[in-house]
Amino acid sequence: MQMYDLLQMIQFGEVNSRYFTKVNDQWNRFQEGREVDNSVVPQEYLDSWKRCRAYRLDPYDLTLSVVENPKQKEFFLNTVKKYEFYLQSVFEIFDLSDFLFKLQTRDGICQLLGQSPLTLMDCSEKNSGTTSSSIALYEDKPAVIFQPFYYRQTYVRKNFGEIHGASAPIHNEKNELIGDVVLLYHYPELSLQAFHMVSLIAKIFDHLYWPLTFGHERQLEQIMNCLPQGIALGSKKETINFCNEKMVDLLEIRKKQNTGQGRKKSLPVFMKAQNDLYTFNHIKGKSPLIQKAKNTAEKIADTYVPVMIYGESGTGKEMFAQAIHNASSRSGGPFIAINCGAIPGELVESELFGYEEGAFTGASKGGKVGKIEAASGGTLFLDEIESMPLKDQIKLLRVLSTRKVQKIGSTKEVPVNVRLISATKTDLLQQADESLFREDLFYRISTFIVELPPLRERKEDIILLAEEFIQRLEKRYSRSSIDMDWSFINALLSYKWRGNVRELEHAMEHAVIMLDKQSSLLLEHLPEKIQDYYLNNTTEEIIEEAMEHENKFGLLALAEQKMIERVLDSVDGNISAAAEQLGINRRTIYRKLQRKENLDS
């Protein structure tokens, strides 16, 4: 069992008083020199207990380790001053009312920030034992801890009461570990929130604070351009110094109008983001199949498990992926999407994993941040994953196993914390049988499979979706009160939607544009292929029906009557509208209907 397995247990509600009792029993077994059950105690905590024993640290010692050395105090104060901008930003951006916020150096010197008077503690593993900080600093990854996992349980309880913690390491401009940030709290149910919040705080430091401070603007720009949210950085004088590509698209403004000349002269002091990702509320449909897919996705959204979304083109796979991200505790982190089928095979590796400067001919100056690293702390969505080259599948499998990514041309592995959602329209197991996809990767990424039904299998949703698109299009084209004629509705219902929801959306936009100044959408406003399909299908049905009910007037006459009946049904019995659609006058329709009445009598 690993620490991330514990996080999943927290997610599924399996961490409770009964589990804490088991952990406490295992702690007692360890102190007695007996074997510890690794299915109860994650390996990272057990390894720390072993290191504490090797330090000859007394687990029952109640001494508080206060730092008295003036040089150590001066060093910590200088550290705090150095990162003052960052620390102030944390208190301004995050709601820490339920937490105690602590900064700790790599050597273990720590202080509860925002507290006075200044009391420095020696919280190193050698003096304080197993803590979330000792795990985070030793493993160089975010960590969480509950009361029973502390090596010095009695010491912690005596001095701080029932307290739990979450920590995440921070690094300098050379990616060297310099310490960690810690959130302490009294209620275990805050653990997931604390873990994700402290991970995000550390990520902001590593990816934003240092690049801004040391002028690594190219690296910062690459990270921001990976994000699907619109981001603008500006000065106190309300001058926009930088816009990422998404913000430019959202505001429909030119790049040269957004980037000020003073970007290199002053630090941005605010960041504004606009999140236009989909949520589950955006997913419309009352059919049992779409409701099943939606319910499954909602249940697994706030977990750590990888998700595979299966469905034909146009069924809304990325919409579901965004909704899952937005409903999870990672919603504050990035959502990074990449379509593996839209990128040439030889470029997939550099897009996913990034590269160092000079890694290959044509490599950009300063290198490139890969999509996996950019998604750390959030969600990575890999669409058309079946198109990923086999060599990159192997590298992705390693990232998922080690939670570390290595850029092309680099010898270092960077820790990443990514939730993977992938999507496909093919049978990946069949692909595996044909040696086109790795079977071990399939099972790694498909803990849960959400299957999206094609539109032809959810006919009860077609008109509902059409009405939804009309509402959007009314706003886009400054229209109002657009309705749908019966012939228009029948054509939508009878058509075989090969392009699924996406094709329906495009058909509705085509119709609204062709509507011109009219207010009612007619059959003639739809794309020709949908009109032709409807008319041909209607003719075939009428002929088949006439052949089944042949009478003395003959097939042609009966088919003519059936056509008139169909058109009248489509226009809700309006004789004038039916005559216009059929290209005949009203008198002819009355005569044909009278003949039918005579036949029936």
Task: Please tell me about this protein's structure.
The termini are far apart. α9 packs across α10 (217-226) and α20 packs across α22. The strands form 6 sheets. The chain has a 6-stranded antiparallel beta sheet. The protein has 601 residues and is an alpha/beta fold. The chain has 4 domains: 3-226, 2-Layer Sandwich (Beta-Lactamase); 280-358 and 365-451, Rossmann fold; 455-536, Helicase, Ruva Protein, domain 3, CATH 1.10.8; 552-598, Orthogonal Bundle (Arc Repressor Mutant, subunit A), CATH 1.10.10.
What's this entry about, in short?
The chain has 601 residues and is α/β, with parallel strands linked by helices. The chain has 25 helices and 20 strands.
How many helical stretches? Answer: 25
The assigned CATH architecture of the largest domain is 2-Layer Sandwich
How large, in whole angstroms, is the Cα Rg? 32 Å
Please state how the strands of the largest beta sheet are arranged side by side. Answer: 3-2-1-6-5-4
Oligomer: single chain
Low-confidence stretches: 254-274
Instruction: Give the CATH superfamily of the largest domain.
Output: GAF domain
Topology overview:
Elements: H1 3-11, H2 17-31, H3 43-54, H4 70-82, H5 84-93, E1 100-105, E2 109-112, E3 121-122, H6 125-128, H7 132-139, E4 143-145, H8 153-160, E5 164-171, E6 177-185, H9 191-213, H10 217-226, E7 230-234, E8 240-243, H11 245-251, E9 270-274, H12 288-300, E10 307-310, H13 317-326, E11 335-339, H14 345-353, E12 354-355, E13 368-369, H15 371-374, E14 379-383, H16 390-402, E15 404-405, E16 414-415, E17 419-424, H17 428-433, H18 439-445, E18 448-451, H19 462-476, E19 483-484, H20 486-494, H21 500-515, E20 520-521, H22 528-548, H23 555-570, H24 575-582, H25 586-600
Parallel strand pairs: 10-17, 10-18, 11-14, 14-17, 19-20
Antiparallel strand pairs: 1-2, 1-6, 2-3, 4-5, 5-6, 7-8, 7-9, 12-13, 15-16
Keywords: ATP-binding, Nucleotide-binding, Transcription, Transcription regulation
Domain Sigma-54 factor interaction: 283-513
Protein name: PAS modulated sigma54 specific transcriptional regulator, Fis family
